[in-house]
Amino acid sequence: WPLYPTCLLVMLWASLSLYVDNMSITRRIVVEMGEMEGEKEEDRDGGKGEKLLKRFKRGWMWNQFFLQEEYTGSDKQYIGKLQSDMDRGDGTLKYILSGDGAGDIFTIDENNGDLHANKRLDREDKAFYTLRATVVNKNTGIKLEPETEFIVKLHDINDNEPIFTKELYTVSVPERSNMGTSVTQVTATDADDSMYGNSAKLRYSISQGHPYFSVEPDTGIIRTALGPGEMDREKREHYQVVIEAKDMAGQRGGLTGTTTVNITLTDVNDNPPRFSQSIYQFSVPESMKAGTPVGRIKAVDKDLGKNAEMFYNVVGGDGLDMFDVITDKDSQEGIITVGKPLDYEKTRSYTLEIQVQNTQTLDTRFLGYLPTKDMATVRIGIEDVDEPPLFERASYMMEVKEDAAVGTAVGSVRAMDPDGYNSPVRYSIDRRTDLDRLFNVHSGNGSVFITRPLDREEAAWHNISVIATEFNKPLQTSRGPVYIRLLDVNDNAPTFASFYETFVCEKTKAGQKIQTVSAVDADDPAGGHKFFFSLATEGAYRGNFTVRDNGDNTAGVLTRRSSYSRLHKSVYLVPVVITDGDFPMQSSTGTLTVRVCTCDREGNMELCNAEAQTSSAGLSTGALVAILLCVIILLMIIVLFAALKKQKKKEPLIISKEDVRDNVVSYNDEGGGEEDTQAFDIGALRNPEAIEESKQRRDIIPSDTLYPPLRQTVIPSRDNADVRDFINQRVQDNDNNPTAPPYDSLATYAYEGTGSVAESLSSLGSASSEGDQDYNYLSDWGPRFRKLADMYGAEDSDCDS
């Protein structure tokens, strides 16, 4: 009822506006009197001279009509009236309408020009229509006035509600945001005409979401309505806000549309981690190794994601150096681990002070006086474990001279039972570390001694393991590594560094150096090697050569004569004595081989004795083997080539092995007559006695069991044999030969039919009764079977004879 006066006023206003528009645009056009007089004057002068042409004014003057959309009346909606000044009301004129919707949506009374709308129109579908009207004579159909175009526009009414671009918005805003922080913007549209009235003028309001959010009426921007202290994600994370858009500028009677906005508060780092309890207690056996986890502690952070990441560290307590704490990145727990070996007999409990804090920077605006870190106390009790013997040292280093006598003590090890029982310990050597059994250990006192002679030159270090075992508990054992270093003793004489051999020219000069020698020693003296070289005191060679010590562990061998004779003595063996400088002094004698050779003027060797020449100028064993292999390979290639040349490749008469049925054999050679001496031997035709009998065929496998030997035809001996008779005789032999082409072969047929007189033609199927069959009927089958008739008929005649 309160809306009734308003609706009545709206309908009255629309009717008045429509009436005024129609009255304003429906006009009658009156022809000026001057024009009518001119027309009468033209009629009077029509027979006297030329016809005077005058321009008439257009018969209609309108531009557009207006029509209200969404008409709900039962009758046709009257738009207006079209009337021509030529209409005298006598019914001779006819109004014709064309254009958009003419005849369907719009109709015109052809007699009086009344224009109506037949259908209910929607401005949102089509805002205006373009029509054309003209007037014709009913009797003649002639246009009396030119066609005129006009427009029918639809008046908009508020019949569309606002529609948001999204039915659901999902947005987020950081928690602890200041009041008035922009969250998002919503937008709605109205299909009504925004240029006409307030039908499309929208206002936004919030119908759900107070008092946390607000919306700007004109822009649709949603903002926070509370301060940072109220927008706390840890208290409430999700909000659902309903926004309403209303047309008619938000006035009463306007249409509305709504949308939902889901707002989530995102996390900020405004909460420090806190331990769930202040004291933690754990126990661990003393046998735990370093790095073994002892237990887990956990702090709680109300934030999310990276803001909840934390790390733990030990900041105090008597176990600061004995334990460590690491952070589990997945569970954000602190894992306490053993840092150093534990000993129940020394310390039975430890206390740790562990601190936790965020890895990210903490927003302290809302913490006040609360600390940003948290502390917890961890008490760890050590449990006693029956432990194996413990060596006093982690490893032992011992030294002994390599010439020490068997039984000499190298050193000793000591282990004890760490438990309170103080059980006796027995020692032994792990023989897997002393395979040569060079050492042993006293089982009672742990003394390590030598059991076999040692040699530093074979192995300078020996690494063995000593096992300590409790007497009362043999399973309780431990190992201690012992590293034994052998000290060097001068027990090896120096020797030549390599085998030395040189030559001397027959003509030389005294004091000429012919070779430089050096020495090596297996010993390793502390001050380094020092060698002395000299010539042996005995022998006739002292008059031929001498040795000069260079003082740098090398020596030079020099000549003492100016000439030598290769024929008199071709090889000299010079003994050189090498002595070291250590105690006890060691020495040895090395032999230098000197060959006498013929040299040129520059001292280059030209010719030595036979032994020297062979060794210097001859080929090495490897080169001789390579040359021999090359010769053998070359001979094998020659033999293989010769064998291939001798081998003749015989081509079978039948090319394909699979094509062995009723074959047509292609010889690919028609021959060249008697002039072609390459095709066949004409002498064989002239001399039949020279023909080889029983020559094997190459296109079939010969078989003596299936076929009897061929009948040999005796040709009378005569000087001039007739070639024609010979050929005829050979043809007859081949006709009587069952292995000559075409010959029977195994042929498989899927279906041969029934009632065949010939039955099977295979020789395999008829071999057993071949002699009893009569082949004379083949002669009655026509020329196609004449060959078979001649072949098998001839065999019957031969058998009968």
What does this structure look like?
With 801 residues, this protein is mainly β. Helices cover 13% and strands 32% of the residues. The protein contains 7 helices and 42 strands. Strands 35, 37, 40, 41 and 42 form a 5-stranded mixed beta sheet that branches. The chain has a 4-stranded mixed beta sheet with strand order 1-7-6-3, with helices on one face. The chain has a 4-stranded mixed beta sheet with strand order 9-16-15-12, with no helix packed on it. A hairpin with a 6-residue loop joins strand 40 and strand 41 (587-599). The longest helix has 26 residues, at 621-646. It is flat and about 175 Å long. It starts with a helix and ends with a helix. The chain crosses the membrane at residues 623-644. It is a single-pass type I membrane protein. Keywords: Calcium, Cell adhesion, Cell membrane, Cleavage on pair of basic residues, Glycoprotein, Membrane, Metal-binding, Repeat, Signal, Transmembrane, Transmembrane helix. One of its GO terms (biological process) is cell morphogenesis. Residues 1-17 form the signal peptide.
Counting DSSP E segments of at least 2 residues, the number of strands comes to 42
Question: What structural class do you assign from the helix and strand content?
Answer: mainly beta
Tell me the fraction of residues in β-strands, as a range. Answer: 25-35%
- C-alpha termini separation: 143 Å
What is the radius of gyration computed over CA atoms, rounded to a whole number of angstroms? 66 Å
**For the report, how would you describe the main beta sheet?**
5 strands, mixed
